[in-house]
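pasting for ref
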Amino acid sequence: MVENQTSDAQKRGGPRTKAGKERSKVNALRHGGYSKSIASRSGPLREKAALSRKFYESLEREFKPEDTAETNCISSMADALSRKASVLRWEDVRIREEIGKASAPYKKRERNLKDHRKHLMQLKDELARLESEKETGLIWDSDRSLRNELLTVVLKQNKSRYVAWSFQNLTTAEERKKYFFQMIQWSEQALGDYLRKVLPEYIELIARWEHDLVNKMIDIKRTGERHLVIEKGSFLPADEVDQIMSLVTRCDRQFEKAVEFLMKYRAAKVELKERQRASGNQLEERGAGAQPA
């Protein structure tokens, strides 16, 4: 039993190389605001490490650290700035995700509107084609064209679905023409007149659908924005907003403490140098006063 469990555990997936294990460490990482390590080969921690180096180089040029203590202060300041930048970037990503969720119904209607407009243009082109074929007669297509779709609808309405399905499975134009007139005892002129009569009505129906769809899209967009901004009070849930504010405050406090310590440390060094200089002057004066006349 134990041997079987051991063999099953060995067969299970998971990172086996050192690089894979390093990547798997950050699988559950979201923003890196609480992370202690800033060294990583991939993911948010790598971006944070690059930000930290950039901030450190900028602060180093500005403050010009003179010893290890000042260098540590600069490192702490750079770490605070990189943490804050990572948290704010994560906030921006989350806001975009929430906006995307709220606008998903709108985008779906937008795709439907695009399809409706494309279909409407195809119907208008087909109507123009029918008008041009009044004298020459109807042209039968061999592929799955819009005309064949219209003829399939005619067969479905006047005969049955099976007849329409059989018409769709034919491959050549001659086979389609022969089969259609076998099923429906119409002349070619009557079929053309019927299509030229029905098609404008269908185009008008599609145009009304398009108008109603545009109105629905406007209502959905207004409702989504109202839900996000007015009803929720924020683009993000309250717990995430509190977490972001807490992390930003924590980073600001870390930066302020590092700056305060650096200023106090430099002031203490200046004061120490002045005391040493004053003490040296006093010793020189005492030495000069102790010399014999």
